[in-house]
Protein 1
Amino acid sequence: MTDGGSTEDQWTLAPAERELVMTKSRANRLGFAILLTFFRERGRFPRDEAEVEAQGTAALSKQLGVPTPIDGEAFLSGRTAERLRAEIRVRFSFREATVADADLLTIWLRDHVAGEAGGKSSP
């Protein structure tokens, strides 16, 4: 996931994270732990199960005392995944971008980047 530290450390749940994971239903604990640790390390959620390292899933399974799933069985989708991702975003003080955010970014880029790029001459 991120540079520095061992891969195992990146998939280690902090005590407060483990406590939070344990509040989820048995069926969702591993999937929630995967989403939580992936988001913590990368600042985003995995696009699909192929992005989640098998050794990470195995490390989380061991910490939670659950069997290591086969073929992405722990990857959450649907309404449950949406709800859990929303909870994780709140935990890390993130929110989904809005149209207003895009408008503000466009204005900032126009004022700070496009003007500078346009003012430089080519060699």
Protein 2
Amino acid sequence: MDSVRFPEIIRQIYSLVSELETMFEGRHFTPDGHMVGSIGEALAAHYYGLQLLTASTKGHDALKDGKKIEIKATQGSSAAFRSKPEHALVIKIHRDGSFSEIYNGPGELIWAQFSEKKIPSNGQFQISLNKLKELNLLVAEKDRIQRVLT
């Protein structure tokens, strides 16, 4: 991978989305679904030095320092979990292609939020980014995946 060009390519995708939305007022061209997930995984791998696993590996997306990491990327206000990850890295992708780290820590802190809840019909528990930010404050620095690039 050309690590120098990668961030610029992501910015170009979001710039093109903005151009299309200007050209076709009232239409939305926001990347979603698999594309956002894949962009998030690529951003996480790039900035955190993660080893990505085969797409759709059950329960985790990457490895680093022996930890299995579930990467969740969103452009919205929540993230969804089907199972308790060993470690979770949740990022919010912004309209300019940059991102913010929302949660970086043990999956058990997130999964504990669902302990009293019935499994949703789609099998995915939703958790708000605001709640994830609160939980992130409880994570010790030693329990975070460290960024290798800023």
Protein 3
Amino acid sequence: MGLTSVVSPVLEIAATGAAIPSGVYDAVLVSSAKGVECAGADAGRYKSLPMHVVGAKTARAAEVQGWRTDIVAGNAEAILPLLLARYPEPAHFLYLAGRDRQAALEAGLGGAGHSVTAVNVYEAQAAQALSDDASAALGAGEIDFALHYSRRSVELFLNLAESAGLSDALPGIVHIALSSDVAAPLEARGLDVARAEKPDEDHLLTTLAHSVS
């Protein structure tokens, strides 16, 4: 697109080292590649089970580590009806999850009579500051667009910008949000927000391309 990227992670992913309880599971769920990468050796004994995942990136990470992926869906809302159709009788799922997550998938499965054992194998720790490059570019008014992937990362970004005295730079940016939920804190500040038509990176980048043109 002819754009230059300035990267400033506001979340740092770390494995928790949580042990996976022994049990009889029917399938494994994972909604992020980090759930696979941070699961640890304990998870290996369940590789004979079908793994149902959210996102093609997650599927690739799972397959690299020898998991047998089955259902692959674009987001948690899309995978729930597929799981309910695949498992008409009560099933027990092992969910390799992040500590901070939306509850829709677990609630939907539980409401249909399934059991979910969620293990928090990774967590997202808040960064203490924006990157030097990002702070300098914001301060100089050189940022035209900002890509936002999660509500928590948006909230952290806003707080870090405020702490750095850069809040006044934010109204001059077009903020591209992955979903309505991600957009909400930005819109609450009265910022210029464009939402992706669907909550995945391809649509996020399509929205950016439309904003550029």
